[in-house]
Amino acid sequence: MHKIELQNRRIAVAPMMDWTDRHCRYFHRLLSPQALLYTEMVTSGAILHGDRDHLLAFNSEEHPLALQLGGSDPEDLARCTRIAQARGYDEVNLNVGCPSDRVQRGRFGACLMLEPELVRDCIRAMLDVADVPITVKCRLGVDEHETYEYFSDFLHIVAESGCDLFVVHARKAWLSGLSPKENREIPELRYDWVYRIKKEQPAWTIILNGGVGSVADVATHLQQVDGVMLGRAAYHNPWLLVECQQQLDDKQKSMQRADIVGQMQEYCRKQVSLGVPVKHISRHMLGLFQGLPGARRWRRWISENAHVQDADHHLLSKAFQHYLALQLEQDAA
């Protein structure tokens, strides 16, 4: 396991269901050598009773890497923490922020913000068996529980467990009436609440999440909190991770997208030889050229060809050739 230094927490990539799988994380690690990466949320029940090897597999290059758990039973979460630690994860994070109906039916996610004592007990049980950081990802509140005092009281109760690191999505959540997508967009962003809790509790490590879409956003937030967690902005425009890395570390060597394509092609070659369909990898790379002329060609080639029966690692080099063709056409015009 790798010790997670504070510099590795300055930039993190959020856990995103169906997106931040091991192939996505490998890609993101190439783009950002220091960012803290998170798995998709995995439920305690799935780990204890499901295909553990599949659910918890990762590439060694992904470190530092955190496992995000969903659950509400202290004993089960403690067992999962032991398993995660034995597997080599560098942090275990408890999801107290997801508002989906499915998650609520399992009594975890954002609905746990209504039960701060239970969250405290879960974290305490996890800390009792852990040598790695145990952290919490939460919202500002839920439903009508939407005052700063409620948010602050929740964190203070959870902190009684010994936890002192909180990732805060700077919105409240509606447990009914809004879809997960709407819960990421409609509730008001209150960055000032996140800044305030850090000022009031300077010994806590506070990571801000929600609505962060640019290097300028990251720089602004880092003046007030310890770290920033990027979500969909980094997925749809992954080069943002490179730009953030370069902004924070002037010694960071320059990268070229062509080099990333080459490294990912080699990764694809190895994974395809193990039976992994190339489409499971290439789908995470659609945004690599976002904002550049030819980006549409890149996306279109991958989207149209990744699903054919004999698609292999050459998919990426062919997509890149189509991307470059537009550059040549423009130069010749």
Q: What strand line-up does the widest sheet have?
A: 1-2-3-4-5-6-7-8
| First-last Cα distance | 53 Å
Approximate helicity band? 40-55%
What is Rg? 20 Å
The residue ranges in which pLDDT falls below 50 over 5 or more consecutive positions are: none
Q: What is the residue-averaged pLDDT? A: 92
Q: Which strand-content bin applies to the residues?
A: 5-15%
Q: Note the overall shape.
A: globular
Task: Supply the key terms.
333 residues, alpha/beta, eight-stranded parallel β-barrel, 13% strand
What would you say this structure looks like, in words?
By secondary structure, the chain is an alpha/beta fold. It contains 17 helices and 8 strands. The protein has helices spanning about 5-10, 20-30, 45-50, 50-55, 75-85, 100-105, 115-130, 150-160, 180-185, 190-200, 215-220, 230-235, 240-250, 255-275, 280, 295-305, 315-330, and strands spanning about 10-15, 35-45, 65-70, 90-95, 135-140, 165-170, 205-210, 225-230. An 8-stranded parallel β-barrel has the order 1-2-3-4-5-6-7-8, surrounded by 5 helices. Helix 14 (about 255-275) runs antiparallel to helix 17. It is globular.
Could you outline the blueprint of secondary structure elements for this entry?
Elements: H1 6-9, E1 11-13, H2 22-31, E2 36-43, H3 44-49, H4 52-56, E3 65-70, H5 74-87, E4 91-96, H6 101-105, H7 116-128, E5 134-138, H8 148-159, E6 165-169, H9 180-183, H10 191-200, E7 205-209, H11 215-221, E8 227-230, H12 232-236, H13 239-248, H14 257-273, H15 279-282, H16 295-305, H17 314-332
Parallel strand pairs: 1-2, 1-8, 2-3, 3-4, 4-5, 5-6, 6-7, 7-8
